[in-house]
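BACKBONE GEOMETRY TOKENS
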Amino acid sequence: MPELKRLHISHAPAVLAFELANRSYFAASVSDRGDDFFDQFTDRYNALLAEHETGSCAFYVLVAEDGSVLGRFNLYDLADGTARLGYRVAERVTGRGLATTTVRELCRTATAIHGLCTLRAATSHDNAASRKVLTRAGFVPVGPATPADLGGRSGTWYQRDLRP
């Protein structure tokens, strides 16, 4: 069974492999990370870990039994009980409910570990899979997302109240 784990320095090679293997797949629905991301991966990864340690963000990876990364699930801008959610799942495991299951798990983690009450996520109009994941995980549309929110694409903000 895949396991959701906090991002760690030891995940770096698997995260890079995940990003490279899925680059064109991701670029079809979200903005491409660009060549600089890959050229400067080690520095960027270390910066993420440092940001993670400050508590302003919380980064997670969904790890398969063989150690490969199946997805990235991140909480950004943690403040005042609220955070933004971002995620991406490997093309080879889409359509199996892993994204929905993991977003639900991260919602529980967001409350239990990070003390969050509300999560927000934006997705583009052309990313039907992400809209389904958010809806199935209990998020509701709350308003338009601008191209500035979504790397040049228009879409919708979704929100989930994490309180019982």
In short: The longest strand covers residues 69-79.
